[in-house]
Amino acid sequence: MKWNTSLLSLLLMLCMVFGCKNQDASEQLKNNAVKNQIQYAKGFEIYKYDGFSIVKVTQPWPSATKAFTYILKEKNTIVPDSLKQYTAVNIPIKSIVVTSTTHIPSLEILGVENSLIGFPNTDYISSEKTRKNIDAGKVREVGKNENLNTEVLIDIAPDVIVGFGLNNSNPSLDILQKSGLKVLFNGDWTEQSPLGKAEWIKFFGALYGLDDKANSSFKEIEKEYKQAISLVEKVTNKPTVMSGAMYQDQWYVPQGESWASLFLKDAKANYLWSDTKGTGGLPLPFEVVLEKAQKATYWIAPGDFSSMKQLADSNPHYKEFDAFKNKKVYSYAINKGAKGGIVFFEWSPTRPDWVLKDLIKIIHPELLPDYTTHFYQQLH
Length: 380
Description:
By secondary structure, the protein is α/β, with parallel strands linked by helices. The chain has helices at about 1-30, 105-110, 130-135, 150-155, 170-180, 195-200, 200-205, 210-230, 260-265, 285-295, 310-315, 320-325, 345, 350-365; strands at about 45-50, 50-55, 70-75, 85-90, 95-100, 115-120, 140, 145, 145-150, 160-165, 185, 240-245, 245, 250-255, 270, 280-285, 300, 330, 375-380. Helices cover about 35% and strands about 20% of the residues.
């Protein structure tokens, strides 16, 4: 009888150690209702469980009809059978390849820039910390986004490749996945809300097991952004603003629901195309823009021009605008990295508070008398 009792105890213990873990993990999904940890971003969700997280990228590209689910699991964690169909990543990761400069600031803010071992066309990267690693040969060139060098990537074998897709056709990434590498889609670029873009730092925080650091970093950015909004809360004077420039035969202005337009709204500017619907660039004939914006006080973001002469040489008719005549033209293209990459493109999605403060400094300079802009500078 004692032997039977001992055997029963042993069997129960074995069940607890081995057989019951999957059942417990499955029940965990049902019993531990966990709220999505993401507040502003529309393109991804994070659900935290004991020992693992579920990351859902719901908007990997515009108008996407498919979502991607990733399981980020800590060492010795057994995930439910129902989740084993999805890509699983052991965290914290130790090495990474990212494919957009917008990913670099998140790595640097989290203090994990040394884990970057590959990037497509490293000349685009401007951040000094990461440029030092590139110059020291610690970051390999891995081709171009539309044609990644699969041989190099398979050779360096990063724990994770963070890619992005313009649509459902991503042959390079498909090949890498089939070779056994872990490929995760990142859709930060599809976000239109300033704080929504910035919140993608939490995506990287989850990969490194640095959720708390990512959350606190984002909260600081959110606080700074909201404080900037409060500065202009009682502003009644809203100077008129024009934006964009000619490309081929059309002038492209940011549409009223776009990321760029929302900043101007928050900065209490009277952006002349704020009432248009859409999130992209609206093509207009030059004459239409001239008629509406000739008297605009400010011209913000005139393409990639970095001087008034360069602007005028491109199109002499630009001189007809009051903003040009009064030298009230402000560009993000002057501040560049060592290899010519524009810092704005790299850092502005992660630091919308800097963008907003820059615009407030330009449009309502009396509200930030001692502030020095990060991105926008007056053209001379």
